[in-house]
Design brief:
Length: 379
């Protein structure tokens, strides 16, 4: 049996590793191209930091990629073994199907435990480090918040454009202030400007302060979209402009899914991100959200084991050597699983125990897989 166990384990692990790697690439490529490549192009981070950011994205995507990867790996491995009549030979020798699949299921259980640890400890730490690198890049040189020659709309109510940037100095700076109706209300032009970070009340660097020199300001009349009224002009030797950094990369409040185990337990006890005058109802809702998040992490990890149990009897029904057919079946099953998981997240009524409902998709698939496995063993 040891030889058969090694055969099943090596076939499953190899196929699952390839499938998981492909899923990780698909899930991370978009984020890396959208944000990391943009940060490199803006000159905020160097190549080494970009590689570090790419590595830090992987822990948060692995728990999402592993269910599909393990499912596809078992379908591909057992489909290949079935097409080569290896499973038929094992069963003819008196080995039950559940015993044949034991190495693959044990592997899925180990990966489920690893995914739970990734969700609760590694991914939050990686996300914190990811955000710290992006915040640190702006902290080292605040002027990198603006890309020369491009319009910056990261700050509410204003559009900013810098013609040049050398170190911390900006040249040919334009700042357009826009009203709620989208009409221009004020424009400011500075020959040169210097950027720095200003700590907020909590000690965090949450404001970008631009000290502009040789400033010319045009103030338009409110509601004068046709410019029928005369604008007022002013020339200043120096002006200071403050902009909140909450919309820039790496800033903003942490989300519940990025909390570690200890932080989630504290949020379950005291609530999360509550105002000082929070009402009892708000506290209860916040505590429920923290409980849901903890259960969602654990239930999502268990989904790896559930899909693995389902994949074994399913592979016998598919029974194809072609990898793309098995991969397509895996994708369809995984999409159904993710759809059930998303549907469970829509339930918010505390009376329906939404934190426990997060387990429903994994338990349902586990029960279905166990029933099909038992039925296949008897046939």
């Amino acid at each position: 049996m040891r030889i058969l166990d090694r055969l099943v384990l090596s076939e499953t692990a190899g196929a699952a590793a390839l499938a998981t790697g492909g899923c990780v690439f698909i899930l991370t490529a978009g984020n890396l191209l959208r944000q990391v490549a943009g940060e490199v192009a803006a000159g905020r981070i160097d190549t080494l930091q970009a590689l570090e950011l790419a590595a830090l994205v992987i822990p948060s995507t692995l728990p999402y990629a592993l269910p599909l990867g393990v499912l596809a790996g078992i379908l591909i491995a057992f489909g290949r073994l079935g097409a080569q009549s290896e499973i038929t030979a094992m069963r003819a020798g008196g080995v039950p199907l559940a015993r044949i699949a034991a190495p693959a299921i044990v592997l899925a259980g180990a990966l489920a435990a690893a995914a739970a640890y990734l969700n609760l400890e590694v991914a939050p730490a990686a996300n914190t480090a990811y955000r710290s690198i992006l915040r640190g890049a702006v902290a080292d040189n605040p002027a990198t918040a603006l890309v020369p020659g491009e319009l910056c709309r990261d700050f509410p109510g204003v559009v900013i454009r810098a013609g040049s940037r050398e170190g911390g100095q900006l040249g040919d700076l334009w700042v357009w202030q826009v009203g709620e109706d989208g009409q221009l209300t004020q424009s400011l032009h500075a020959r040169t400007a210097f950027a720095q970070l200003v700590p907020g009340e909590d000690g965090a660097a949450d404001r970008l302060r631009i000290a502009a020199r040789d400033v010319r300001v045009e103030q338009r009349q409110a509601g004068d979209s046709a410019r029928r009224q005369t604008s007022t002009y002013a020339s200043l030797e120096r002006a200071e402009l403050d902009f909140p950094l909450r919309r820039t990369a790496g800033s903003g409040a942490r989300k519940l899914r990025w909390l570690t185990t200890s932080e989630l337990l504290e949020a379950m006890d005291k609530g999360w991100n509550l105002p000082a005058d929070a009402k009892p109802g708000q506290v209860a809702a916040s505590r429920l959200q923290a409980r849901r998040q903890l259960h969602a992490h654990l239930a999502g990890a268990m989904g790896i084991l559930s899909l693995a149990v389902l994949a074994v009897p399913l592979s016998l029904r598919v029974g194809r050597r072609e990898t793309f057919v098995n991969a397509a079946v895996a994708l369809g099953v995984a999409l159904a699983y993710y759809a059930l998981t998303s549907a469970a997240e829509w339930v918010t009524d505390p009376a329906l125990r939404p934190e426990l409902l997060a387990w429903a998709p994994s338990l349902a698939i586990l029960g279905l897989g166990a029933a099909l496995l038992r039925r296949a063993d008897r046939s």
